[in-house]
Amino acid sequence: MGHLNNVAFAALFEDARVRMNQQLGRVSRGKMAEGSFRAVVARNEINYLAEGSFPEDVEIAIGIGRIGNRSFDMLSAAFQSGQCIATCDTTIVMTDPKGESLPADFVERLKAVQLTSQ
Prior knowledge:
This is Thioesterase superfamily protein. This protein is of the alpha+beta class.
């Protein structure tokens, strides 16, 4: 059995972010969706909690954390055999040169999948 290295974790979390962007309507068939906005990853922090094994399946859970005026955080966790083996906190920032805020309809979609503590 092999070891999941840091590059493998980064790729798994990136794939989850792409899928989340598709769910949120920002990306359609690999291209920016009509009426969407440009954004970049400003911060990406991965915390390794346990060794990951290859080729065992890895499940990624993802949701939205903080929502700001021009940015938001995607929060992810990787699980193997029911154990959390890594977390990833990513800040996504709009690149609109005019300084526009996140579109209101997009903020509503973010709120629908925002993680909250109870």
